[in-house]
Write a structure and sequence with these properties.
Structural class: alpha+beta
Distance between the termini: 52 Å
Number of helices: 24
Number of strands: 21
Radius of gyration: 26 Å
Amino acid sequence: MTTAEFLALIHPWDRLPAETLDDVAAAFQTQTLASEQTIYRAGDTLDGLYVVRTGRVEVTDADGALLSSLGPRNTFGERGLMRDGRAVTSARAIDATELLMLPADRFRRLIDAEPGFRDFFSRTRAAALPRRSLAETRVADLMTAEPRTVAPDTTLAEAARIMRDGGFSSLMVADGGGLRGILTIRDISARVVAERMDPDAPVTRAMSADPVSLTPDAIGSDVLHLMMERGIGHVPIVGDAGLVGIVTQTDLTRFQAESSAEIIGDAAHAPDVDSLAAITHRIPRLLAQLVGAGTRHDVTTRLITDVADAVTRRLLALAEAELGPAPVPWLWLACGSQGRREQTGVSDQDNVLMLSDDARPEHDAWFSALARFVSDGLDSCGYVFCPGDMMATNPRWRQPLRVWRGYFQGWIARPDPMAQMLASVMFDLRPIGGDRSLFEGLEVETLEAASRNSIFVAHMVSNSLKHAPPLNIWRGLATGRSGEHRDRIDLKMNGVVPVTDLARIYALRGRLTAVNTRARIEAARDADIVSQSGGRDLLAAYDLIAQTRLDHQAAQVRHGSVPDNLMAPATLGAFERSHLRDAFVVVRTMQSAAAQGRGLP
């Protein structure tokens, strides 16, 4: 595939006139990088705009926090080029990678000559134009133009190689008579591999024949509805002239995720706290958009948490600009839902500060001011103060590393109820900004010490059972009897939290470093910490409960209400209520197994 043909598959290059595209393609330079090779560092002068042709690239911020992992057809470096020409992030190849690089001067000439191209890469476009929803977006603006096609007699082996080498998730099967079928990665797995088809057989043996399609004048919500109704992830776009494009689930997710990227980009350059507060005011709308697009709950909460991380890092930078250099190295960490990357439309703040052991008492005034600036700023941005005072403004949670090490050792050695509660919170710690080396050794040694202490683990299991699913003695849904909980169930404390507590126990027993709840359950299942069937059922139950919670919050946002976690089961249909009840039964069953030592080694 030539460079021009490759670029023609990517937006916005696919919108360039053919002559311009050929001319631009000729200006690209090819770079081959080894695994772990640095492409550029934050502050470097950028050589140009990069496009990943093969391999993967990891982009991190100035603090080393992962911003994105990019695969074929992804573009990077535009933020710096659109500003002063210096990189605002760092990038490195994480696999053997081939890049296309458009020199900076050629990129700028293209920006000046093509208004649509300039609008796509401009960091300020969101302020000039209102964000469109899927219902307001034509399929022609979502699709990948001229998708890769193969002839009906192409062998399955050759098709698999094309998909692997080009990074395609699907191939269109076409001939002179038009679109004959579609072959997807799922077809390769479920039909070719599982059924041991002859690799020399034609693609027509495994493809989905006569796939349902849409026209270019359809809208984004048409694609989403079709995918949901038919259970498919790829929709060919067919016009009068035949096949013109394809829209995938990834395209829909990317469309919605772009709004989170814009929010993060705006937050990263906000001049003050008031500006940050105005930016975070857009989060409920982001939540509603993501849920409305059918985005998985774990992707939605990850994107929303990414915003909180960016806001926190910007507040840390603003604080340092006001206070001057720190007297010793430090690390700001989040715990709770932000630590687990599971924030929704309702979030308070839970954070701590770890200081270098070189810290002296006279240094605390600087760190106290830092904590106050950031915590007050987070509160102004809608992340309200922790009711349990689990914040860096509390001197107890602003200590040198040796004190933190002593905290964990004490909680493990003497697991009283308070120690169990604190340990539960602190096992969800995740670095946000500062010197990450302060946390690396502590995390591993704490997991090892905790997992070896059977008494501590037993207490943690007991503590995890305090949050029970909302089931009555007949295993029906049990709602509150008074106040705001009347006729409602708490989808956080009695829904998500019991699963979060179980996942933490699994991670503790298996010395698993994952912090996210779903990732912990998957890792525990893979490590045989929990049985395969139990892990599978618990994941399914968690997905249903967590998604129901987000659906409830998104509906409140769309109706102009403040999102919360209290849902009336009566708002669900009988079918949905039945499945939700079954999910809670699974959680209670897994809690019982944990209490009796079953499902755990």
